[in-house]
């Protein structure tokens, strides 16, 4: 029997007037609550008092970010510079590599985070112990100099007018060091008055969007450049060194010896590092493997052992040593040396690389994921680090050129430099110990480094960047896990941690349905959808049946991303399911399954109507309690929740029709801005204790849940430890809201919110490349890419050969990168008088198009269109609907690498 609808006035009357303070409860160690007799008052100011000039500056193109030694901005910097799923190797602020979390030791409960330490934090009422999984690296960021696991570096020697100058590339030896991040490439510049040449170091892994194989090499490239800025020719010598890291953790006294062997080819000089042991157990340890240090030039000299330290002039004169060994645990450091005479004004470049191969997953990981038993994907491709290095050498120019092409393409934009950096940088999570790819090709992840296993659906559904940059990984995850080991054939439920879970999460189920549609859109044809439609349909049917009374608003108690089972009808979950049903409708139409398409359409229509009527309180969307249980269990109820219109945010990401009216959607976002956003979280977290420290006093952010009307017991009668989440700033959720703000035209607010996250992660305070939630490099933070998508007004549907752009600002002079199923490039649009020009310039791969949707930026009636592909005229049909221009071709056109599709409207 259907429940009688409860309208807003009656709902507030019945559920809003609760009494007494919060009951005494027991909480986990990470969350020691101290509550006042009554619930603390809401204390976020409605007026934000933000300087208009500062807001205006957020739109400026600006300069690329740079961090300086002179400003004390280098010590926390750790940019991931290894290949995808190959562990974590950081480039530090002075160019030296650190951390070296490549030994497969990361595991929940034993080695979480990038630095497994606990710190003390005063939350405003008491001192608490914060573990790695709860944000210790936010309170006390890891410092590069404390985690230099392996000896590695460079030194440059020059002789000018008979005088010898030698400097190592480390912070202590230079007047100024400038670190310029442009993920995946870091450029480090070294300057000193007492050094006569200019030196720079470029550090990056091969990184090629749409090419997950070549982007997943366990390797780092280090390109050292010396420029002769003197007026005389000078001899330049470069020495690079690398410690043998084999069995670095397990190589104790008496276990074996480290061995370095110099190997030369016509193109390169390498030092192959291994561990020689008769101990079979040691060969099964996580750090048993090999490394290879290579200079990709033919006239270099390899030296198997260059100890001791520090570097002196004698190191540049060491005799050739083809092999060397050292009994564990003694260090063994190799070097590769090259010398060249450099004419005035000329540059010399030395291309080094470091590769590694540690193919023994953590034993507990093998128990957790059966696929881990076969080792890693790179282990299946290469037998040791030498083979990785050889592959790099054979393909060096191609890999480096395309990586730099992508970097140039991404940054060649009219969008602000800081915005491009913050919305893209979290893709670096893939190049940390947070993600794995096993020998059979399966992709798998923690939520954050070493914490919460199973590529969790209710976390990863927020992470938009992987699907746009490496779509094959997401497609494989959908098929192999969500519709494979994590799929319940009898019900259609998707286990939210794959085989590591026994039940679904409702938000994970809905979000994964939306991801099915996104992965279909990011495919070149409909093969993915056709192959998986029967199971996708079953997954949708499971979601639809969670609406017990048939009103289009799911109401079955089920776990969600806030780790609790909530009762009743919850706006953010209701809306997410409506969006998922809308995606299912679109897929059903494409599959010619009209009866099911009708079922989904009815659910969407009914759900959208009832959500707006029953769950909107006149200002924002709420959580209506279960009619029988009331507000007994934990929930958000009448509070202002960060994800309340998340379903509409998701709909924008995949070009679905609106599921919530613009009026009510923007009202909800304005309420979040009014009640949840603050330029200083300090006063709030001092009174609302128990949350984890992901934003500190003096920093801005958007609080997860607030109680703007100061209701008693706002989160229910029986509050539990999960209540701590409500008082936090978690960047993944904030990025989701920023993306939605941008899509709805609230551009100022979107940029402000994104910028305060960016400033929370400024290098003067902590690592700019590590957005933290439950542990380090948290996957949900990859939601940041969604803000880039909505800033461009980008939509794409590969099988339909459809693309759309509608920039949110600078529409008369806009340029930005784009990625599609098979290619990527640069989109531009410009207005000159009454003529507007749109260009799609392809830099990589190919792009097939049948329909293009653009904006009429000139205004008025468009009378003609001219389309050319290169020099060839392309016939096109034009249709104008208000301010939208729809361009269609009689048959698909194909843009290939280095071609430009030029469109001129007059």
TrEMBL record:
Pfam families: DUF608 (PF04685), Glyco_hydr_116N (PF12215). Residues 507-785 form the Glycosyl-hydrolase family 116 catalytic region domain. Residues 78-397 form the Glycosyl-hydrolase family 116 N-terminal domain. This is Uncharacterized protein (DUF608 family). It comes from Mucilaginibacter lappiensis.
